[in-house]
Structures are given as structure tokens and as C-alpha cells.
Amino acid sequence: QQQVKQSPQSLIVQKGGIPIINCAYENTAFDYFPWYQQFPGKGPALLIAIRPDVSEKKEGRFTISFNKSAKQFSLHIMDSQPGDSATYFCAARFGDTDKLIFGTGTRLQVFP
Amino acid sequence: GAVVSQHPSRVICKSGTSVKIECRSLDFQATTMFWYRQFPKQSLMLMATSNEGSKATYEQGVEKDKFLINHASLTLSTLTVTSAHPEDSSFYICSARDSTGPYEQYFGPGTRLTVT
Fold first, then answer.
1. What is the 3-state secondary structure (H, E, C) of A86-107?
2. Residue A29 burial by CB count (10 A; 0-12/13-18/19+): exposed, middle or buried?
3. What tens digit of pLDDT does each residue of A15-48 get?
4. A43 contacts in chain B (CB < 8 Å)
């Protein structure tokens, strides 16, 4: 019930490609769904986030699609660049405690 | 804005000693801070929730007597790993929730702990 499932575990794309990372959850107590980018040896940095009453949110090259009925959400990175190579985590937040539950992570490699 | 710092960034200690890690919100007040642990190539696992002026709340399976948390002010929380053992070697990351904002947690850069 507390899990957030994330796939794929790793992803390799060419520069300019559109990697898509998927997450799924079960617990309807989650009320906020952020995505984080983490480089080796660094803390995670917030990329973009969405609330469940919105089906899509776009910020720059990053887009979240949210399907509330299916309890799934995904991150799309448009026009991917080698600098986007990092590990991406989805997360879900419990509304009453602010606790974040993280997905298992996706290691993205973008080749020139 | 919304910067969270951690000190030290790296620490090596001998087995059996204690290590203190500081987490500071530099430009905002945080009544709530969170401590996470991340093993290599794994996800972040929440260890505990730290509330200013009250006792921390620990996640299931986290030993509260081993991982002592103190949130003495609105900008500082500390995690002390007591009697550290090699299996405690990990990347420890804190986050701070802006008291004036509705949702965001801002993460620190992490502390790499190595116990020899």
C-alpha cells in the first residue's frame, strides 16, 4: 500500500529522443506527486510535480502525465540532452504527514 | 532561495564511535525536516520525521536509540549515528519543509558516511 512502483530500471536514448518513465501507486491517501533528478553523490533536486486533480503539467522540456483512475503517472523528457543523464525518482506524498515515498529510480543515459 | 545544507559532506569514522550530521535550512524556516538513507544504486528510504521542539517520529525498522534526531530550532536538525558499524555506511540525506509553503520539501546535498 505504501509502495510506488517505477519502471524501467534503466533507459538509454539518443540525444533528442523522448525518454518516458512510468510510476504506479495503490494508496489513495497520496495527494502530491513530485519527480526528482539525482546526480551521483548529490541530493535529489525537484524537477516537476503534479496534484491528482490535474491530468498533465509541463515545465520546460519536462511533462508529467497523470491518470488518476489508473493510479499511474509518467515523466516525459522532450528533446533529451546528454546533460539529462542522471537517476530519476518519482515520489508520492501522504497528505496528512508530508511523508514522501520514493519509487525505485530510473537510470537514464542520453548519448550524443 | 530554499537552500538546505548538510555538514559534513563526507565523514569516515571507526566502528563503535558516534557521528553527528547537521541539516540546516539557510533561507527559510522549517518546522518539519526528514531524514533519509540511500544505499548505492538504491532509492531513498525515509528514516524519520523531525519536528521542531518535539520528539522525532521513526519509520518502522529504524532504531531510534541508534539514530538520534534533535530538531532544536526552526533551521537546524541533527542526526547522530551512535555506535556506528560498517553496515551503517550509507548516504544520508535530509529534507526540510518550508513552514510557509504548502507542499515542497527541499533536499540537502547529502552526507557520505563510511564506517571502518
1. EEEEEEEEECCCCCEEECCCEE
2. middle
3. 999 999 999 999 999 999 999 999 999 999 999 9
4. 4, 6, 93, 107-110
